[in-house]
Amino acid sequence: MYYTVYEISIFDILLQILIIIVAVGFCILILFTSAKKEYRIVERIITVVFLSVAVVLIASSQIGDSEIYVDYLNGNYKEVEGNVKQFSLGSDTQKAPESFYINDTYFEYYDGWEFGYTKYGEIKANDKLKVSYVYDTDYKTNRIVKISRYEKY
User: Fold this and answer.
1) Measuring CA to CA, which residue among 132, 140, 93, 89 is closest to residue 114?
2) Burial readout 111-135 (b: 16 or more C-beta within 10 A, e: otherwise)
3) Would you say residue 125 has pLDDT above 80?
4) Which of 123, 91, 134 minimizes the C-alpha distance to 110?
5) CA 133 to each of CA 7, 24, 108, 115: distance values in angstroms, whole numbers, following the listed order
6) Residue-averaged pLDDT of the chain
7) Is residue 114 pLDDT above 70, yes or no?
8) Is the Cβ–Cβ distance between 132 and 72 less than 8 Å?
9) Which of 1, 19, 41, 130 is the most buried (most CB within 10 A)?
10) Do the strands 128-136 and 141-150 form a parallel or antiparallel pair, or are they unpaired?
11) pTM for this one?
12) Residue 101: beta bridge partners?
């Protein structure tokens, strides 16, 4: 029988939404404070351009992650079931991802750095898992959106 170890949820993207709101609010605050007369027009233009680029970069990365969540909700994901093979333990100090294969499907992730499942140490070699994933075209990797572990009763 399988039990769910991890499943992506709305709480995984709430932080990203808050980051976008804070970034936009910060930009508005900077624009209003730079509108004082002692700032020249060139300084204002540079500030507006810099902050606009920063907001666009932050928002575009967050939108890409949100699309993975929406794909999962809409059933646009793949699922693989089997034993964990070629397991490689991740390391924060060496900036190495944790990685493994299940039936020729490769998964890798960094602890806490990515969207989706990112916890080091919970998956072990030869674990029997059912993994649901969405292919991330931006980073060319499989993002884990659900993991179920098999246990005999």
Assistant:
1) 140
2) eeebbbbbebeebeeebebbbbbbe
3) yes
4) 91
5) 10, 31, 12, 12
6) 83
7) no
8) yes
9) 130
10) antiparallel
11) 0.75
12) 85, 106
The token duo for 125 is 């070699």
Cβ contacts of 139 within 8 Å, gap of 6 or more: 114
* Whether pLDDT at 59 is above 90: no
Strands (E), 2-84: 2-7, 78-83
With contact defined as beta carbons under 8 Å apart, do 58 and 90 qualify?
no
Beta bridge partners of 128: 83
Measured distance CA(67)–CA(64) in Å, rounded: 5
The CA-to-CA distance between both ends of the chain, in Å, stands at 8
Report the alpha-carbon distance of residue 129 to residue 113 in Å, rounded. 22
Separation of alpha carbons 74 and 66, rounded Å: 12
